[in-house]
Design goal:
GO molecular function: chitin binding
CATH class of the largest domain: Mainly Beta
Largest sheet: 4 strands, mixed
Radius of gyration: 25 Å
Keywords: Chitin-binding, Disulfide bond, Glycoprotein, Repeat, Signal
InterPro entries: Chitin-bd_dom, Chitin-bd_dom_sf, Chitin_bind-dev_reg
Helix content: under 10%
Distance between the termini: 43 Å
Number of helices: 2
Shape: elongated
Order of helices and strands: EEEEEEEEEEEHEEEEEH
Strand content: 25-35%
Number of strands: 16
CATH topology of the largest domain: Antimicrobial Protein, Tachycitin, Chain A
Protein name: Chitin-binding type-2 domain-containing protein
Pfam family, one: CBM_14
Number of domains: 3
C-alpha cells in the first residue's frame, strides 16, 4: 500500500460525496495497487486509487491527510500534518472525553503516567511505558525530568539520585550519569540525569547485569537467565 503526498489535479466535477466512485473522471495515474494523493485545495480530503478505481475520501474528524496515514485510512492527527496551501477544516465533533472524534489527550491536568486516545469519539485509556509521563506538548510520553513544572521524577520513578557515589563502584563508571540496578527487575536500570532519575529499559531481549550495569544477552547474566527460564 502506497500513500503519496503528491497533489494530483483530478477533474472532480460531479463528485457526490466522499467514498463514492467518481464517474467520468480521468484514469488513476497507476492502475495497480493502492495509492493515495492529496487534494489540491482541502487538507481533509484526498484521492484514493484502488487498482485504477478512483474515489474521493474524507479524513475522520480530527485527522488530516499527509500521505503517511499513520492513524486511520491514510490520515494523521491534525497537529502532526503540515497542510501548506491546502485548507483544513478543524471544526471539532466532540463527545464526552474527546474534543475530536480522533485525537490524543491528557487524562489529567496534573502529572500523569496515563493519557486518553480517542477513536470514533470513544475515549480509550492508555498507559505510558514505566518511568514516563504524558507530555501534552508532544502528544506523547516523555521523561518526567523534562516536565519539572508539573512532575516529580523521584515520585514517578520511585528513586532518589544520590549526590555522590563510591569511587570505583559500577555506578561511578558512568558519572556524571550514574546508573543503578532496579531490585528484582532484570530488564530495567535507573540513570540519573542532572540529578533526576530516568527508568531505562534494556530492550532487544537483553537484561541488566547488575555487576557492570550494562545490558547484556540473557545467557551472559546467569541470575537473570535462570529466573527467566522458570
Amino acid at each position: 500500500m502506497v500513500a503519496r503526498v503528491i497533489v494530483v489535479s483530478f477533474a472532480i466535477f460531479g463528485i457526490a460525496s466522499a467514498g463514492v466512485f467518481v464517474q467520468d473522471a480521468p484514469q488513476c495515474p497507476e492502475q495497480h495497487g493502492v495509492q493515495a494523493y492529496a487534494h489540491p485545495e482541502a487538507c481533509n480530503i484526498f484521492f484514493l486509487c484502488t487498482n485504477g478505481t478512483l474515489t474521493v475520501e474524507t479524513c475522520e474528524n480530527g485527522l488530516l491527510f499527509d500521505g503517511k496515514g499513520a492513524v486511520h485510512n491514510h490520515c494523521n492527527y491534525n497537529w502532526a500534518v503540515h497542510c501548506g496551501e491546502r485548507k483544513a477544516d478543524l471544526t471539532p465533533i466532540s463527545t464526552p472525553g474527546c474534543e475530536y472524534q480522533f485525537g490524543i489527550y491528557p487524562d489529567s491536568h496534573e502529572c500523569s503516567t496515563n493519557y486518553i486516545k480517542c477513536a470514533y469519539g470513544e475515549p480509550h485509556p492508555q498507559a505510558c511505558e514505566p518511568g514516563l509521563v504524558y507530555d501534552e506538548k508532544i502528544h506523547g510520553c516523555n521523561w518526567p525530568d523534562l516536565l519539572l513544572e508539573t512532575c516529580n521524577p523521584e515520585a514517578v520513578v520511585g528513586f532518589k539520585c544520590p549526590t555522590k557515589v563510591p569511587s570505583g563502584s559500577p555506578a561511578a563508571r558512568f558519572w556524571p550519569y550514574p546508573r543503578f540496578a532496579v531490585p528484582g527487575d532484570c530488564h530495567r536500570l535507573i540513570t540519573c540525569v542532572n540529578g533526576h532519575p530516568r527508568l531505562i529499559t534494556c530492550g532487544e531481549g537483553k537484561v541488566l547485569d547488575d555487576k557492570t550495569l550494562t545490558c547484556e544477552e540473557p545467557e551472559n547474566v546467569p541470575q537473570c537467565y535462570n529466573s527467566l527460564r522458570k
